[in-house]
Amino acid sequence: MFEAVSPEDCAFAALAARGRRAQWSADRDVDWQLPVRPPRWLSRRAYVSAISQLYHGEVATVRACRRLADEIADPAARDCLEVQIADEMRHANAYAGYLDRLGGVAPVDPAVAEAHDEGMAWQGAPAGLVVLYHVVLEGEALMLHGDFRRWFRCPLFGAINRRIEVGEARHVAFGRLFLRSSLAEMPADQRMDIYRWVCRLWRSGAEPAAERYWGWIPAPHRLKQNNLRRRWNEHVETLISVGLVSAEEARMADDPVGVVR
Length: 261
Hints:
Blueprint: H1 7-21, H2 26-29, H3 44-71, H4 75-100, H5 110-120, H6 126-151, H7 155-182, H8 188-214, H9 221-241, H10 247-252
Helix pairs in contact: 1-4, 1-7, 3-4, 3-6, 4-7, 5-8, 6-7, 6-8, 6-9, 8-9
């Protein structure tokens, strides 16, 4: 007799297969003859630092996915993670190649590095790391890609980023699929522990980053806070959709930027 395959495992298998079909090589598939054109309105040092944070995020996500692949029992979910690890390494390699054209990778932002270190110190269910990396941080990366696409018109960076965004969207899809099943039976107090932990880590990295990036453009404090509220609200909508919190629980929880939902 054949063992029944769950709908979730079928969806994981489809995601992994899609990821394998979409694999590309930074050496072969990126046109490195495209011009490198940093924005004139931003210093090269600031530009390199901004792009370097994308590189460091890819490296940190590889570390998280390797741990998750060791801790998650479902072979179909682990297969997705193995595909993602290859994706993230490819992304990091592409960003490193781009940054080499500009003089090399800049150091990771200390606040972001601290948030990643605390994330890896998580001792709870694997769902906590999936919420942090596949929903919030991958979602944050997609928002940042969109901002950078509008702000920076470098042809080579744009070509690299278009390829990377496809993979990042698939990683977010994995996180949502995994969480909808794994959170369904989780007690409310454990779900709220994950929610508050992720809120705190997001704030510890997002607020310093906002000060840095909005510092490029003279802007009132209100504009920076509105940007943070918009981004956090998008994350909360996703966290509600996957079952981490209800809308009422999100309203009642400590809010990292004073968002009133």
